[in-house]
Amino acid sequence: MTLFDTTLFDKRRPAEGTPARTPQKAARKARKEAARAKARRNGLDERLLGPRPKHRKQHRTLFLSDIHLGTPGCKAELLLDFLRHNDADTFYLVGDIIDGWRIKRSWYWNAAHNAVVQEFLRKARKGAAIIYVPGNHDEALRDYTGLNFGGVDVIGEAIHETADGRQFLVIHGDQFDSVVKYAKWLAHLGDRAYGFALALNNWLHEIRRFFGLSYWSLSSYLKNRVKNAVEYISSYEQAVARSARERGVDGVICGHIHHAEIRDFDGVLYCNDGDWVESCTALSEDETGALSLITWQTFSWDTDLANGETEPADEDDLPQTVPTAA
Prior knowledge:
Layout: H1 23-41, E1 57-64, H2 76-85, E2 86-93, H3 100-105, H4 111-125, E3 129-132, E4 148-149, E5 152-154, E6 158-161, E7 167-170, H5 178-182, H6 184-210, H7 218-223, H8 227-247, E8 251-254, E9 261-265, E10 268-272, E11 281-285, E12 291-295
Parallel strand pairs: 1-2, 2-3, 3-5, 7-8, 8-10
Antiparallel strand pairs: 1-11, 4-5, 6-7, 9-10, 11-12
Helix pairs in contact: 2-4
């Protein structure tokens, strides 16, 4: 027999003025912590797991292509940082978002790649329109045009009308690549060589980051100095612009060649939104209809963008997990 009931001390009570934590909230917090721990183990920077910045740049439309999720060359962390700091009413994913060619050969998918997919789905849940125009590396999705997956509309091509009334043809652009169209085996061979160059590029990028140097693309440097590559880019741009003129539109927005540019071809505005393996660029339309290129080669915490208020974390901040392998 005891002098007092010790069971009164077995249950922890919340501090005075602090609401008791429900089992649901405790379980949700545990899931978040577990997912973030897994993301950290898979190489996703802790600074990309916290609350989003409160004051984000708002665009009318953002165009992104050639992300190549599923490849080691994809700059998924930089893209995730970009998406957390930029919102839009409409996102166009202009092909080669997921690299089916590479995934068929071997599986590569880490936490950052998965976080990018989840970020796009989150934006769709928050009300943004997500329009996916497949390219040659994700050509399997062309069999599903007209369908909607988790708020993402898959279409073969689009006509986008800007705020100032201009009409732009939105296509990936592989339709104008004679190698992809008529010699696919050669395109696959070139893709392997390009992958090797990107692997070297990643190695150099990590070394430069260690010494505090800015991003620099070896593959882009070589491409811009090889005569045949320069001639190929020029002929590609002219062919795409010519097709847009024949379609009777004011311009064309495409990707495919990993070369961001805005250029006028005899009254037809050619816009290439670049890529996220070399240039790390996107095409933006503002509320007046003006188009411009955004380059995001530096993380926000290396600039003043990281200094500001953040939003409270919500359930959508929970990183979803998938099997990962290098």
